[in-house]
# Entry
Amino acid sequence: MAEQVRFYGQQAAPWALVAQSDLYVHTALNDNCPFAILEAFAVGTPVLALAVGGISEMLPVGSGLLPDADVSRLADEVIRCFQPSYRARLTATQTTFAHQRFDHQTNLEKLFLYYRQAVLSPI
# Structure
């Protein structure tokens, strides 16, 4: 197994390792809003994650959400990601979704628009 897996320990910049990866797989059974998924989005690494906690709100439906922790189904989905074209589509879909949901500039503009509309709308 040592030839296949490396344990790097605690990292000052874990996103740098994620950026070098073809795929990030998040298999936590209980997690609300893992920064690791946000870091993967930020560096353009596609994500597969179990639909637990708040994760189902972090990924677009049908693009990276794993319905359960069944090992066989997890393995099948990871194997699908060996196809560069599939990974590219997954990355494009997730990047668009993440930009809409997590980009601070986009969210700030939406917030300002909301306040402008709230102030200007008649009661």
Notes: The beta strands are 24-26, 47-50, 65-66. The longest strand covers residues 47-50.
